[in-house]
């Protein structure tokens, strides 16, 4: 379990990216009063947590029902995470985690951004949902699963804190500082993604 917690924590930290989410949230809510910002952040975290929990509990059974092996999903997830890592390293927004331009315009017109785009795809994006399915599928027992849940809870708490303090985060780091942090995390995520692909290929070769 001692190794599971750091691995899970780093995986969730780089896929959810609390600082990056906070900067986008600050941009979307820059004219909103503080009470509304806190309400949007709270509602978004509730929705995102429920969505991630649903994938954690039913992701693997759903894959089995569709006839998809964890090895195949591990490879596909690794490739998806690698694309996300590429976007983070080059600080290039895309539809993988950030809303596209039409989605951004829709969010700017909407008074309630808590579900879209804040909860999904900013907090509970494809990277986070893929990671939780893979990590839960790799859990070796109750203690390992508890470590994954603890890591996720800590990262979600950090994300909520970053959303609440998003205006201060934006003033302290700025866009450049956030991009620097994102690039470093992107390199770590690229390595994790490569490991997922390698592990999936090895598992398939061992069964053949």
Summed up:
With 208 residues, the chain is mainly alpha-helical. The protein has helices spanning 4-16, 18-28, 34-65, 70-89, 101-109, 114-123, 126-138, 142-164, 166-207. It has 9 helices and no strands.
Report the structural category.
mainly alpha
* CA gyration radius, whole angstroms: 17 Å
Give the CA-CA distance, first to last residue: 30 Å
Number of helices: 9
Described by strand count, sense and barrel closure, the largest sheet is:
none
Poorly predicted runs: none
Approximately how much beta-strand content do the residues carry?
under 5%
Number of strands: 0
Average pLDDT over all residues: 87
So what's the overall shape? Answer: globular
Helix and strand succession? HHHHHHHHH
The helix fraction, in percent, is over 70%
Write the layout of secondary structure elements.
Blueprint: H1 4-16, H2 18-28, H3 34-65, H4 70-89, H5 101-109, H6 114-123, H7 126-138, H8 142-164, H9 166-207
What report would you give on this structure?
The chain has 208 residues and is mainly α. Helix 1 crosses helix 9, helix 3 packs antiparallel against helix 8 and helix 4 runs antiparallel to helix 9. The longest helix is centred in the last third of the chain and has 42 residues. The two termini are 30 Å apart. The mean pLDDT is 87.
